[in-house]
Design brief:
mainly alpha, 5 helices, about 60% helix
């Protein structure tokens, strides 16, 4: 994987851009936030999909979690405030959906905060180790991507796309 080192640093920069967007969410309009998110999410997905980690997770050191409940809630709350009534969307990939007679909803803010957490951990592991743990931090984050947040990212992207293009003609509060 060391051949990909420069690409991994690009992923760190992309992760940092995403985390800054989430941290600064309250400074954007819903339209600006949606547009920036739609710009970042596919690139994040592609980069975590495209580079093969190549090492089993059990070979890695344990990494600290840099996101506590308070920070998570701050991020979630900022995004929820920006998204307003558009924060909630119907979740179609929820496992329980096949057994439910009522729709299951999800939150863009909660999903974005769920993605924020591993990316924030990733960039801080790299920063604190002065790049020495770049590859291991990526492998750990990719493992989380594959097992947890890849589907969340896709679902959020679909919901944001609907806000941008599906409701845009009828929504005077987009920008």
């Amino acid at each position: 994987m060391s051949d990909n080192k420069s690409r991994l640093y690009e992923i760190v920069a992309l992760a940092k851009e995403y985390c800054e967007l989430c941290e600064d969410a309250s400074s954007f309009s819903k339209g600006e936030f949606t547009d920036r998110s739609l710009n970042l999410l596919p690139r994040i997905y592609w980069n975590f999909f495209d580079i093969d980690a190549g090492v089993a997770l059990e070979d890695l050191d344990y990494f600290s979690n840099y996101v506590d409940e308070e920070l998570y809630e701050q991020i979630r709350g900022r995004i929820a405030a920006v998204m307003g009534v558009d924060d909630i969307f119907l979740e179609t990939f929820e496992e329980d959906m096949q057994y439910s007679e009522t729709p299951i909803s999800a939150s863009i803010a909660e999903g974005m905060a769920d993605i924020f957490q591993p990316l924030f951990n990733f960039i801080n592991i790299v920063k604190d180790s002065e790049g020495e743990q770049l590859e291991d931090a990526y492998i750990s984050c990719k493992e989380d991507f594959e097992n947890y947040w890849s589907q969340t990212l896709c679902n959020i992207q679909k919901a944001l796309n609907n806000i941008k293009y599906g409701q845009r003609l009828n929504d005077e509060n987009y920008d």
